Amino acid sequence: MSRVLVIDDEMEVTSFFRYFLEDKRCDVTIANSGREVDELLHRHPSPFHLALVDLKLPDANGLDLLAKIKTRYPDCEVMIMTGYSTVKSAVLALQAGAKDYLEKPFDDLESLENIINSVLLNPVGNTEKLNMEAAQYGIIFSNSSPLQKVIAVAEKLAKKAINILIEGETGTGKELLARFIHGSSLRAPYPFVGINCGAVPESLLESELFGHEKGAFSGAIRTRKGYFELANNGTLFLDEIGEAPTSIQVKLLRVLETGEFMRVGSEEIQKSNVRFISATNRNLETEVQNKQFRADLLYRLEGVKLSIPPLRDRPGDIPLIAQSYLDKKYGGECRLDPDAAEMLKMYDWPGNVRQLLNVLNQTHAIHECKCLKPDHLPPYLLQRAEHPDNPMPIDRQIEDFIEREAKQFVQSLVNGLSQAEQLHLKKVLDRIRKMEGEIGRKVIERKLSETNRDRQLLSKKLNISMRTLRYILNEK
Ligand SMILES: Nc1ncnc2c1ncn2[C@@H]1O[C@H](COP(=O)(O)OP(=O)(O)OP(=O)(O)O)[C@@H](O)[C@H]1O
């Protein structure tokens, strides 16, 4: 017989659960306050299998009770009971080890029953199953990884009707996580539609999101559905939401509040039922303070926030991700040498997993090796392993900045070019090649003033030889 502890100061709630759980042949104990819980734990009753804990008691906080119960009975699963306004604290409870949370009022008895049954019938969480589910979406991590907790919480949130904001540096796997949440949710049979708010030019973003009527603007030769319509009943993934221009932020807010929108060029109100998952590598709270991002929009998008730790904070994941990638790409023909794996673990990875995969690709392309050894890796990785205390050869922020700008530029160019009926692609690519020289020359010209036109000093600052500097300046 399962022993269940119900902690709530509201009589209706405790009576409801007594009836509900006794019907399931559980042995139910009730506590109405934090003080009663303390007394109970002090008396050392036999272990509980499950505790249902109200988040807000007059004399105690559910998060503190969770910690006390878990210390006393580590195997007892704890479910937090919460109102909508305290869902964010309930998510903190998930991160602190609660099994799940139940939202008050308990209108949806069927899902309440499912959640409670799943804990009573399957008391020990199955981490292996979770790892396998995440792997289906390409998410690899080690058993000791801090990412495991994020995935476990995400899996629980997936089933709730709540918008999610994913934070993380570039290349940490925000899009993979968004796909995992969609796939683990009840919306899984419906579309997952993603849009990169930073990559679409402002003039096109509105029609991409909301669609347009035929003739709404020059080039609108036929009526087109926008992403909101396409994602109906599914998930809309707003990548790089921090880049959305202010005009679009206002329109997004309206859709989030009402589910209503209008196609560009139409006055007919349409409705769409989507769950929003947004992602950002910026700190949106700071953006709000700087008036770059609307506070009301952030509040709506961030029903809850999940943060993906950077790769350098989970070095144990690196060999697993690397080997799994090599296996997939080269059909098991390339093995990662343990010393090379150690070197990969010592690097800081400012571009995170994406950068790791690029390094593996480049290394394999150059050496075509069956076993990837330390000597095959790029010199800056060797340097890092030999002098772990040295500062990074390239400043991480600059590298991040370049990665972001380049990605945005490429996307926006591709979007613009794909509108053209006919194209001289070679001319376009020739022009783009010229940009390398233009950027090099402009950076040098600006920087020369910082060194009082001392070219020798500047070549050192820029890590290039005098010959390269002259070459870039077209001086031959
Ligand atoms: N845990 C992981 N295991 C294996 N591959 C991963 C993992 N995380 C990310 N990747 C891979 O790294 C690359 C970048 O992932 P993704 O696009 O999801 O990152 P992101 O955070 O959304 O990036 P950005 O901020 O630039 O949009 C992809 O190739 C993805 O498959």
From TrEMBL:
One of its GO terms (biological process) is phosphorelay signal transduction system. Residues 140-365 form the Sigma-54 factor interaction domain. It comes from the Bacteria. The modification 4-aspartylphosphate is found at D54. The keyword Transport does not apply. InterPro entries: AAA+_ATPase, AAA_lid_NorR, CheY-like_superfamily, P-loop_NTPase, Sig_transdc_resp-reg_receiver, Sigma_54_int, Sigma_54_int_dom_ATP-bd_1, Sigma_54_int_dom_ATP-bd_2. Residues 3-119 form the Response regulatory domain. SUPFAM superfamilies: CheY-like, P-loop containing nucleoside triphosphate hydrolases. GO terms for molecular function: ATP binding; DNA binding. Pfam families: AAA_lid_14 (PF25601), Response_reg (PF00072), Sigma54_activat (PF00158). Keywords: ATP-binding, DNA-binding, Nucleotide-binding, Phosphoprotein, Transcription, Transcription regulation. SMART domains: AAA (SM00382), REC (SM00448). PANTHER family: SIGMA L-DEPENDENT TRANSCRIPTIONAL REGULATOR YPLP-RELATED, TRANSCRIPTIONAL REGULATORY PROTEIN. This is Fis family transcriptional regulator. It comes from Paenibacillus naphthalenovorans. The lineage of its organism: Bacteria, Bacillati, Bacillota, Bacilli, Bacillales.
